[in-house]
Amino acid sequence: MARVSPGVEEALENVNEVSRGKLDLSWMNSNPSGWGVKATPRDERGLCLEDINRVGRYGEVPERGGKHGSMAPRGSNVPDDLPALGCYDIDDKSTVWAENVAHLYDEAVARQWSSARDIPWDQLTPQPEDLEKAMCQVCTNLAEIEFIAGDMPAKWMWRINHDFHEVKLFLASQIFDEARHMEVFRKRALANGGGLLRSSKSSEEGLRLIIEAPNFTVGSALMHILGEGFVLTLFRNGEMFSLTPVEKKIFRLCMQDEARHVAYGTMHLKYFLEKHPERESEIHDILQRGEEATFNLNQTRDTIEARAILAGGGIEHIDEGFKKMRFLFKKQITEYLHRLKMAGIDRADRLAIPTELPT
């Protein structure tokens, strides 16, 4: 065997000593205050994250993450010589926390679905060319949006201190949700003899604002409340755009995922503003830019024409489709402003975009 490093030599010595019966066992008494804690399931859902957070000190989330900056799980014994990794620098609880985050993670785990098995692809039927092309354009646009909705939490998750593991777990579930959404909209575009159509310059410019946000809270407000909030309203009204049971099921399943993401973002902003009321103006400023970008993104010719054709039932009924689009937009604005009020911020008189589309 080649000459081994000092670290390997130390590890081999540990193995030799244990095999000879020379035991240390100090680890057994390293965390006496954490011993004897028992978590039990509250109901038929099984042992959930919320359940283990209700016992002993393991559910106590510090206002600041552990100074050690290591991967040590919250509540474990952290030796003085444990090295800090230097990357877990988001260690202020208020910058990531939401009081509902453990519950949302438990729900996310329980409600995972498969785009391969849970969508009734056998019920997809041939459609008139204008309707099929409109659906393919909508799916192209949504697949583009879903990519950024996964990339944004991935950008920040690895930097979050492990003492806030509930947030990291939830964001991991969101990344998987968004991957599945991108996958299912891509599949729908390709599954009925159509294909992907046109990407959008406005989409790229609007989504760039999210991925280039200067901090997690700003990125969350832009994406979870504004961007995904508008998409959630769209999915809730998916019946308006559905051609077959396939689209109805897609919109319904995506809706339940988006509702979790929006709920997290709303409650995170609420928690953040309660801790940092002096930063409300910063949130107003970024939301103004986000509103303008979201409006431009959703009102491109490609987007509004395709959605109006679907909503009306064909090009010949596009006027009726535009009426439905105006109704949908007004609902998006109303629900967006309501979520902001829940978070403790009022933009009714500061909205940077119209509250209604022109007639």
Task: Please provide a written account of the structure.
The chain is mainly α and 359 residues long. It contains 11 helices and no strands. The longest helix has 31 residues. It has a domain of 220 residues: Ribonucleotide Reductase, subunit A. The model has no long low-confidence stretch (mean pLDDT 93).
List the SSEs and their pairings.
Layout: H1 6-19, H2 49-52, H3 101-110, H4 129-157, H5 165-191, H6 201-211, H7 216-236, H8 245-275, H9 280-298, H10 301-312, H11 318-343
β-sheet strand percentage: under 5%
Which shape, going by the Cα principal axes? elongated
* Termini separation: 81 Å
Low-confidence segments, given as residue ranges, are none
CATH topology of the domain at 124-343: Ribonucleotide Reductase, subunit A
Helical residues, percent:
55-70%
Spatial extent as radius of gyration: 25 Å
Characterize the largest beta sheet: strand count, sense, and whether it forms a barrel: none
Looking at the chains present, what oligomeric state does this protein adopt?
Answer: single chain
Which CATH architecture of the domain at 124-343 is right? Orthogonal Bundle
* CATH homologous superfamily annotation of the domain at 124-343: Ribonucleotide Reductase, subunit A
Name of the CATH class of the domain at 124-343: Mainly Alpha
Q: What number is the mean pLDDT?
A: 93
DSSP strand count: 0
Number of helices, where a helix is a run of at least 4 consecutive DSSP H or I residues:
11
